[in-house]
Amino acid sequence: MQIVSLLKKSFNNSLISYIALSLLLLMPATAVAGSNNNDDPPPQTTGTSGGSRGCESESVASSNSIPNIVLLAPTQSYGQTLANSPTFAWFVKDTSPWQMEFRLYEYDGTNKKSKLVKEIKDENFKSSPGIMVLSLPNLKLSVGSRYVWQVELVCDANRPSGNPFAIAAMKVVSVSPDLEKQLSQSNDILTKVNLYKKADLWYETLELALISKNEPSLQELRKSLLEQIATGTKIEQTEQITAALTNSKIHQLQR
Q: Where is this region: Disordered (predicted)?
């Protein structure tokens, strides 16, 4: 009840949102494959909005079962990052521009409290169909801390419980001396992205893969990462989501 009460204050515009986050933080944990975070197991997430209707008309939505929002982040695991101002990315299905809201929370597992770190919901923060990449250069996250981030589309400001939203978890980790040395010795983007990938640093790997334009190897990596996202969704949607993600236009945002 204490957690629910705290989350009510943070998610006061959406009943479903704060219930979902409270359940997210209380769900049984699943170990991250290939990582060394077994002493700090992550919450389970789906990274996609419930249903497929989104904000568009029922007739348009019925022809496409793809979720309205797909966060480009690992499901049922912490996506790791070295950055205190990481880049966030997600896919939006709707072709019409809709008001978006972004929230980032820091979660303290010791005292069971969540704290709002960043919120964006200004009138110019609107969706475009495809992959949206959000840079927050002024964000200052802490090494060792766990975070939960959320993207919501405002279909009807008077009925927030119907807004599609999706949630993912992340953790800021420290760079190992060996990795720091290897990164400092290379100016090649392909070498760096492979180092990030080997170290299970999802956010750094994805960011470099998304900004690639003409480098075939990075384009292949991007395709592979997007296929991983699609594989983490419902089985019957995997093929459709893979096609939607890999064929999406990329939109850069900055706040």
A: 34-60
Contacts of 10 (CB under 8 A, 6+ apart): 18, 103, 105, 114, 115, 116
Q: Which pTM was predicted?
A: 0.80
Report the chain's C-alpha Rg in angstroms. 18
Q: Into which CATH architecture does domain 2-254 fall?
A: Sandwich (2.60)
Determine the Cα–Cα distance for residues 192 and 174; give it in Å rounded to an integer. Answer: 16
Per-residue pLDDT band at 214 (split at 50, 70, 90): confident
Residue 134, φ and ψ in degrees, nearest 5:
-105, 120
Nearest C-alpha neighbor of 49 from the set 16, 26, 81, 76: 16
Neighbours of 252 (CB within 10 A): 13
250: part of which helix (H) or strand (E)? strand 250-254
Q: How many CA within 13 A on the CB side of residue 71?
A: 32
**Chain segment 132-143, per-residue pLDDT in tens:** 999 999 999 999
The Cα–Cα gap between 99 and 35 comes to: 36
**How far is it, in rounded angstroms, from Cα 126 to Cα 115?**
25
Give the residues across from 34 on adjacent strands: none
Q: Structural domain boundaries of the chain?
A: 2-254
